[in-house]
Amino acid sequence: MERSLLPRHIGIIMDGNGRWAKKRLMPRTAGHVQGAKAFRKCLRHCADIGIECVTFYAFSTENWKRPDEEVGAIMKLFSEYLDEALGMDDKDIIMRFIGDRSRLSEKLREKMLRIEEDTAANINGTICCIAVNYGGRDDIVGAVQELIAEGYDWSDVTEDAISRHLDTRGLPDVDLIIRPSGEQRISNFLIWQAAYAEYVFMDVLWPDFTEKDLDFALEEYAKRNRRFGGV
From the candidates 17, 48, 63, 225, which is the catalytic residue? Predict the structure, then answer.
C-alpha cells in the first residue's frame, strides 16, 4: 500500500481475550497471554510498514472492576513485557505510556519511565503508545485541571489548548480505530482525539488478530472518503 494512503495514527482496542479463553475452556488469563503475543506481532508490523503512531488500549480506568485474580494477571503480563522491552534493541520504535500511573506499582512506573527514556532517541521510529489505566473522559478532565492550575482564563481555553494538555500531546489525532471481537463501541478510548477517526470493527477476537487482519483494516481505511465535516 502506498505510504500516502496509510493513517498517521492508529488506535487499537485489544478486545476479546476473555471470550477467546472461554471458547477453549481455559482461564481468562490464558486469553491475555495469547493477546500479548498478538500485540507484539501487530506492533512489529506497524513499524515494518511505516505507521507513524499506534496506540494500544491495554487497560482502562474501568478494568479495575474485574476480578482481582484477572487484574493481577494482566499487571504481571504487563510487567513481563516491560522487562522484555527494556532489553530490546529495536531502533525503529519509540515507547510512550498514557493514562493515570498513580494506581500502578512503583516498580511498574519506574520501568515505564526507563523505557520511555531509553527509546526517546529513536526519533524516526514508530511511536507505540500503550494506554494503561486510561480513560478518555479522565484524559479530558486531567487536561482541564492542568489548564486551571496553569492559570488559564476561561476565554483562553481553546480546542488547541486542551489538545496540548492531553496525554497524547504532540501526537497527531487518531485517523483509524480498529476494534476486533465483534463489539461496536469506543469504550471511553481516545474520545477527544478520535473526533474524526474512521472505525473498522472486526469479528476476530484479539488473540487471533494477525498482520493480515491489520492489513485488511488498512485497506478498508484507504477506501474511505474523509471529509472532516465538509461536503
Answer: 63
Q: Are 93 and 126 in contact (CB under 8 A)?
A: yes
90 is catalytic: no
Non-local (6+) Cβ contacts of 130 within 8 A are 55, 56, 58, 95, 96, 97, 98
Give the pLDDT confidence of 19-37 residue by residue, as tens digits: 999 999 999 999 999 999 9
Q: Which tens digits make up the pLDDT trace of 161-196?
A: 999 999 999 999 999 999 999 999 999 999 999 999
63 counts as catalytic: yes
**Catalytic residue, candidates 15, 139, 167, 175:** 15
Say which CATH number the domain at 190 has: 3.40.1180.10
The answer to whether 210 and 12 are in contact (CB under 8 A) is no
Distance between CA 103 and CA 99 in Å, rounded? 10
Domain presence at residue 152: no
Q: Domain residues for 218?
A: 12-135+171-223
Alpha-carbon gap, residue 71 to 168, rounded angstroms: 25
